[in-house]
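Batch 3, record 17
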Amino acid sequence: MNNTAFFPYLLTMALVTYLIRMLPLAAIRRRIQSRFLQAFLRYVPYAVLGAMTFPAVFSATGNMATSLCGLAIGVLLGFMEKGLLTVALSACAAAYLAGFIF
Amino acid sequence: MADRHPKRSPRDGRAARWFREILRAGKAKEAATVAANTGKAPRTYARGAGSMRGCGVLDYRRGFKHGLPIALGYISVSFAFGIQASAAGLYPWQALLISMLNVTSAGQMAGLQLMVAGAGLPEMALTQLTINLRYGLMSLALSQKLDGSMTLPHRLAISFCNTDEVFILAAAQPGKVGRAYLYGLTNGPYLGWALGTFAGAVAGNLLPVSVTAPLGLAIYGMFLAILLPPFRHCREIRFVVLVAVALSCLFTYLPVCKPLTGGFRIILCAVGASALGAWLFPEPAATEAPTPCDGDGLTEQDRINREVRL
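Prediction for the assembled complex:
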């Protein structure tokens, strides 16, 4: 792509994305007092995590069957409270091996 | 013991004893810090809570370690982006520049499509805004987790690579987080994101799909590892997560909701589920009273064990 077209796009994307991320973090310096908001913000990461994982994980490998195999191993090890890397790699390995079957 | 290490000299013994003593002293000190910081809230594990923590090499290394699985997942995801970018007619360095300046998966994919379509700049700005608005919510939540070491310049720097995964890991840490931990946490994924993009753009088709496809699960495997322990231990979090998952599946599969972009879907689900959770289970906030869900519902010993495993 030629640069006169590329750079305006690039700068627009980068600027908008950065401002969205930066403004709340730079502007809010004190502790939020509202009880409701505090509880709300405490739950946000887990809600985000749930919404990002499901249902996207079903098509993570591009194949429902291998994704489900990886998911099953991931859920099992996650419930056993294994470390992040262990769970992530085991899920990948399970999906890879399942690829030979499906 | 002596039989199993017949060659061990007395010096080794002394060194080992000395080392053990140091360890014990460190643990005692840590226990004291925990006790001091949590006078009112004995179940809150205060690692990184004091301002003296948060700027150390150890914290950086801990963060870097935590970021490794993210980096791994990012390599696979950004690899796919690199392939798509070069297929769309971008030079590898252009793809790399996009990844280095944006650091957002869904936003970049959408941006790439708009570039190829020759869309106007306002459309580009609006698309990025809707897809990436969720980061505003995450930054808001993260702003409540930062300790005193996060002054304005560091906030400006860290927010640059506050991605979904980084935010979630930082937010799942017990207590407050400091800048050393956050730099450690973000450096690996940023590098992985950039390198993966470049590799994908230059040599995208060298690796067989049977290898690259399963790597797409790395991120989700990591999510499960973060999500499931508190899910198991804490009723409130279990409720919030189940609501979010149900909403997310509903919004994805209902034909009426098809026009919702991924970013908007996540915002709606997260806000809906968290608001419902906060409405049903608001926690005593003013007194910092301990609750089973502070941090992620693990006991201190659990957490130390887990730390070791990470």
